[in-house]
Design brief:
alpha/beta; six-stranded mixed beta sheet; 11 helices; about 15% strand
């Protein structure tokens, strides 16, 4: 709120005097400041279309606000040390306001285009493991995504487009590493999104784990929705697929009583490859210590926008991309969807296509 006050005071000072303009300015300022709080904290009290509009406007404003805050801080520093004569552009100046609007428009347009364009990441990985039952002569083809954030911001049509994109890859299995939902399951039921998940085509099906936003939405409600949608929901559980490989789905660390990796893997036949889905990429050494072949995570979004990306880089050993520790492969996705305003500045929206080879199980290495 203090940051919003600072930004709006600076904008007020730039705005040339106009009684009507200033009344409109105050109304817009109140709307922008209140919208994200109203949508997130009390959205279920409003009609879905209104909540969706408030959510999109309000969370987009959070991004705009952050860059305006940084811009005004830099301008105030420049003005204070008299490096450049920027003061005349910061007081009752149409030209200053026009330059600021043009800069923000260019930045946000670039960020939106980066969000809309989904990057295709391809990996070819070989893991240890022996098992009987190989039925073909090709690697396992995985499409892995995370952080869909379906809800008031990302709706049915956008999800349909993503499903078409996934299906074009002809995957053997589809893995979703948490945060399918955003803050509330109500808009998912409103849009009947449970009807869409069965349209994802793969040989072995779609496997989903909970993320922190499933807990924000209410983990029991989110789980009920996902099970109704026909996916295989793994919450501190494992699935043996075609007697060939395991998919282990770890509960999100929002649950302090979730099982440890040793507890989850103790009953498994460790001659078969093990793929671990763990939404938040903390303590990556645990997967290596427990001989996990491949871990897929999400959560970080790589910060979504700079300079938040500097924070995620400092917080996580791997905040985005591929890494190998010992015999364990890791991939942390920046997410297919996004939380809030649809801008990617210094990050990307992506899906990952993995060709997984294993001795005796997925021939062709």
């Amino acid at each position: 709120l203090g940051g919003n006050y600072y930004v709006f005071v600076r904008l007020w000072q730039m705005l040339p005097p106009s009684p009507a303009g200033r009344i409109l300015f105050i109304a817009v300022a109140v709307l922008l400041t209140a919208s994200p709080f109203a949508a997130i904290l009390a959205g279920s009290s409003f009609p879905p279309a209104l909540t969706s509009a408030m959510y999109k406007v309000g969370t987009s404003w959070l991004v705009v606000f952050m860059y305006l805050l940084l811009t005004f801080l830099v301008l105030d520093i420049i003005r204070a040390v008299h490096i450049l004569p920027v003061g005349k552009f910061m007081h009752h100046s149409w030209s200053g306001l026009g330059i600021l609007i043009a800069f923000m428009a260019a930045l946000l347009t670039t960020g939106y285009c980066r969000y809309v364009h989904k990057e295709r990441v391809e990996l070819s990985l070989t893991v240890a493991g022996q098992a009987a039952g190989a039925t073909d002569n090709r690697p396992l083809r995985i499409v892995a995504v995370s952080d869909l954030h379906l809800g008031y911001g990302i709706g049915r049509k956008e999800f349909e487009n993503w499903i078409e994109m996934i299906n074009r890859e002809n995957p053997d299995v589809v893995l979703i590493a948490g945060d399918v939902t955003d803050n509330n399951v109500a808009p998912l039921y409103e849009a009947k999104m449970e009807e869409l998940f069965p349209l994802i085509r793969s040989k072995y099906g779609t496997f989903v784990i909970p993320g922190n936003h499933e807990y924000i939405a209410g983990v029991n409600k989110a789980e009920a929705f996902l099970r109704r949608s026909g996916v295989t929901f793994l919450k501190d559980s494992a699935a043996l697929v075609d007697d060939r490989f395991y998919i282990v789905g770890r509960d999100d660390r929002s649950n302090p009583e979730r099982k440890s990796i040793p507890e989850l893997t103790a009953p498994l036949d460790r001659t078969k490859p093990v793929i671990l889905l763990d939404h938040q990429p903390h303590n990556l050494e645990e997967a290596e210590q427990n001989h996990i072949d491949l871990q897929i995570s999400g959560h970080t979004h790589k910060g979504q926008v700079w300079p938040v990306s500097l924070i995620t880089k400092a917080l996580f050993e791997l905040d985005h991309g591929y890494m190998k520790k010992g015999n364990t492969h890791y991939y942390v996705s920046s997410g297919l969807g996004i939380w809030g305003g649809k801008f990617r500045i210094g990050s990307r929206s992506e899906y990952v296509v993995i060709e997984l080879k294993a001795g005796g199980l997925f021939p062709g290495q």
